[in-house]
Amino acid sequence: MRLLRPVRLAVTTGLAAALALLTGPVPAQAVTEPAWGLVASSCTPSDIAANRAVGIGLVEVEAYWDRYLPSGPGAVNAAYAADLRSRVTACLDAGIRVVVGPGTQYPPGWVRGLPGAALVDQRGKNSVTGAVDTVYSAAVRGAQNDYLRRLVAGLPSARLDGIRVGTSTAGEVGFPGPNEAGDGFLQSWWAFGAAPQQGSGLAAGTPATPMPGWKPGQPTWNGRTVTPAMAQNWFLWYSRSLLYGIKGQVDALRAAGYAKPVHVPSPGKGVLPADLTTAVNALLGGAGDRDGSLGRGLYYVDQFPALAGNVAGPVVVDLTGVDDATAVTARGLTPPQDRCAASDATTSVAAGTPVQNWSNLRFARAQAARAGLAAVGENPGPPAAETGGTASSDPIAEQIRRSPAYARGCDLLGFFLAFESVLNDPASGVTRQDYVRAVTG
After folding, report:
1. What are the backbone dihedrals phi and psi of residue 38, each rounded to the nearest 5 degrees, phi first?
2. Of 59, 187, 285, 311, which cross-links 217 as Cys (Cβ 3.0–4.6 Å)?
3. d(Cα 239, Cα 235) in Å, to the nearest integer?
4. So what's the pLDDT on residue 5?
């Protein structure tokens, strides 16, 4: 067990140091027509034919960790691996570009038994949503990265357009969110296992907490009064921990020989600067949490520049809030606040800008632009438990109609419609032709 370190009032990790190097101007990017794609394509012959018939030339294909290595480390399910490779290759050979989602959000059962696999919040509760600790646990990180290396070797990786990386049960960046301990508690902080608190079994290169034993909301720590600056330092450590998890995955992909872009799915708008001020003034005791982003550790204002400066090779953020419920609300304001503007990268962090009224896409895109990161996007999909859609979202037909304008207006490199299965389902009321008409109309 490592000796516990004294508190530091400034995070002094490589990520923090890199932030100081990212203050120069972001180079201008040419505006291009987005590539139009689909989420969760099967790449079966019938879907390939249907997509080619209407000119859809980009898809995301989901792999599944629990199917690839179902029974133990190194025990590859050869039949599944061959089928996945065959389907991805079939799409590529048909001229359809492919981004692979590795499905690390679907860990095999044996991974859940590894040391430190269970995420632990400040009350000693575990996540009940299936999440495992890919951020702090060395054992889980090692198993995950072994899987990623095998996946790269088993796919025509040099031909791919991208591979996604994430830390959550949705395959996105983030810790579990409100009520993911299953008991109605709305703000768990998932950094109270032995690894982040004591350094025991901690993933290499990932720092342990700067305040061992301190729990958000507590007014004292080791006999000292906790200040807002100390609370903010703790939060930055927590939120940047996610980037170490992402970096570990990317490093594994690069070590396996994958040199193409990595995509980082990023939900919502994250914590707003004014909300973080409110939160740390309350010592992270519950105030300022607009939408659950605090406990999830999402602070794109800080994370996107750190991501740009610390992850090897090309990085693309995937903004998963195109025409989500916040867009519906934002476009109903006077004036509307849903559309991206060229000045957003600067004004989004200026005092007094009403970014709380902006759509998730608009604010998150502004942070990507500030960091000089390219971006793609996807819509939430139909309102259902397994998607990001809610009762307040546009119906899927309206998402299809509106999303192309959002993608163009926010200068996205590509847009992925969720989901291919929706377009295959007669009961959905939407077809590939509807999608193409929305793009070309």
Report:
1. -135, 145
2. 285
3. 6
4. 26
pLDDT at 1 over 90: no
| CA dist., res. 421 & res. 386, Å (int) | 13
Q: Contact, 118 vs 193, CB < 8 A?
A: yes
Q: How confident is the model at residue 32 (pLDDT cuts 50, 70, 90)?
A: confident
Distance CA 65, CA 62 (A): 10
Q: What is the pLDDT of residues 108-164, one digit of tens each?
A: 999 999 999 999 999 999 999 999 999 999 999 999 999 999 999 999 999 999 999
CB 292 within 8 A of CB 239: no
DSSP alpha helices (H): ranges in 256-374?
273-281, 293-296, 300-310, 325-331, 344-347, 360-370
Question: CB neighbours of 195 closer than 8 A, spacing ≥ 6?
Answer: 116, 133, 136, 137, 138, 201, 202, 203, 208
HSE of 97, CA atoms in CB hemisphere, 13 A:
16
Residue type, 242: L
**C-beta of residue 304 within 8 angstroms of C-beta of residue 8:** no
Asked if 374 contacts 29 with a C-beta cutoff of 8 angstroms, the reply is: yes
- Which residues, other chains included, contact 46 with Cβ-Cβ below 8 Å and sequence gap of 6+? none
Instruction: Tell me the C-alpha distance between 272 and 252, whole Å.
Output: 32
Helix axes 138-154, 228-255, angle to 10 degrees: 30
Strands (E), 114-235: 162-164, 220-221, 224-225
Question: Shortest CA distance to 5 belongs to which of 181, 265, 196?
Answer: 196
Give whole-number Cα distances, 294 to 129, 178, 188, 201, 270, in Å.
18, 10, 9, 25, 8
| Most distant CA pair in the chain, distance | 69
Location of structure tokens 């059962």? 109
The lowest-confidence range among 28-42, 124-138, 165-179 is: 28-42
What is the number of residues in the chain? 441
DSSP 8-state class, residue 4: P
How many CB atoms are closer than 10 A to CB 283?
Answer: 23
Q: Taking 70 as the threshold, does the pLDDT of residue 22 lie above it?
A: no
Q: What DSSP element (H or E) covers 60?
A: strand 58-62
Token pair of 57 as six digits: 């030339």
CA distance readout (Å), 117 to 93, 265, 324: 39, 22, 32
CA dihedral 350, 354, 358, 362 (to 10 degrees): -10
Question: pTM for this one?
Answer: 0.92
102 preceded by cis ω (within 30°)?
A: no
Locate 377 and state its tokens.
């996007």
